[in-house]
Amino acid sequence: KNTSENISKNSNWAVHFYSGAKLALKKVENTGVHVNVTVVDCKNSDDEFKKLMQREDIAKSDLIIGPYSSNQSKLMIDFIKNKEITLVSPYTTSSNPTKDNPNYIQANPSINRHFECLSKHISENSDINKVYFITQNTESAKNRSKNFKNVFRNFIKSDKSANINEIIVPDNFLTSSEFKLDSLIIDNEPVSFVIPSWDEKYIKDILRKIESDRNGKQVFVYGMPQWQFIDEIKTYLNNLNVRISSNVLLNTGSSDVDKFRNLYFEEYAKMPDLEAFNGYDVTSYFIDQLLKKGNFFQKDCSPGKQLVTKFDIRPVVNNINTNVVDYYENFGLQILQFKWPGFQIIE
């Protein structure tokens, strides 16, 4: 049992992830199936990690889950290429992390998958002339909005060359008398604001500005998956009809979630955080696919929902001329809308 209260912040996620994974493995054992599992600690060292990759048991693995750090993930992605090993990365969210490497599965959808999911929903439910990208005045934010708009354009059915509205938010927008959104918001003509950011202070301030300027009129706000876990913005989410894309929904009213919490507490004398659910879901889902379909199961993965995570593993092909699978990725995204006291799936 984990009794330490002073473990480093960087290690805390690993403790919870592993604790959840152990409960998933125990569930498998209770079915009578024997799975040979090895847990390795790279000690947060790239040199130590390289030594681990030289081990015979690692080279003979059917399935590897991890690691966490992006640098070590890159090393492992290269290591399993052209081997009979499937690698599942539970945290990496890279766009195009590898090429011609169908052994690799990215369990966490990349930002482009989120852009696609949101673009589809926005294009089907909004007037394009009433869609405004609200962009923070930084180069990274401008580039992100540019990429989002490029994806969004692919979902516009009428005129793909149509202008997409964008507003660059000045740094002093809360005190500026010139920055106003009220003229965009008209009765009976719902406006959609798209905010591709996870800067917590900025998000809180811009939502506060929209709430102030809408004057009680209806608006819809589309945000990013990280918003689900920012408590400071909850006061704005309901009134602004906030929608996000996510493959994770922690439904506290679920009986299965409640059972897991009780089981986790009985085992570890602590309540699970989201990483514990993630460890349980990733381990449970991918071992189940391995047992049912054997090696290279990713070519025929069954979509499914675990405790909090939705999985829909599909091939990513970047060169349609060669039709070569570059890697596999989780496309299991859903649109969530905030309805007090939390996010719910839009049916």
3D architecture notes:
It is a single chain. This protein is an alpha/beta fold. It is built from ten helices and 14 strands. It has a seven-stranded mixed beta sheet. A five-stranded mixed beta sheet has the order 1-2-3-12-11, sandwiched between helices. Helix 7 links the parallel strand 6 (191-194) and strand 7. The longest helix is centred in the first third of the chain and has 21 residues, at 9-29. The mean pLDDT is 91.
What would a concise description of this structure say?
The protein is an alpha/beta fold.
Note the main attributes of this structure.
7-stranded mixed beta sheet, alpha/beta, 5-stranded mixed beta sheet, 10 helices, 347 residues, globular, 14 strands
Please write the string of helix (H) and strand (E) elements: HHHEHEEHEHEEHEHEHHEEEEEE
Residue share in helix: 25-40%
Beta-strand percentage range: 15-25%
The number of E-state strands comes to: 14
Q: Provide the spatial order of strands within the biggest beta sheet.
A: 5-4-6-7-8-13-14
Number of alpha- plus pi-helical segments: 10
- Outline the low-pLDDT stretches: none
Largest sheet report: 7 strands, mixed
Instruction: Give the termini distance in whole angstroms.
Output: 40 Å
Q: What is the CA-based Rg, rounded?
A: 22 Å
What would you call the shape? globular
Average per-residue pLDDT, rounded, comes to 91
Given the helix and strand composition, which structural class is it?
alpha/beta
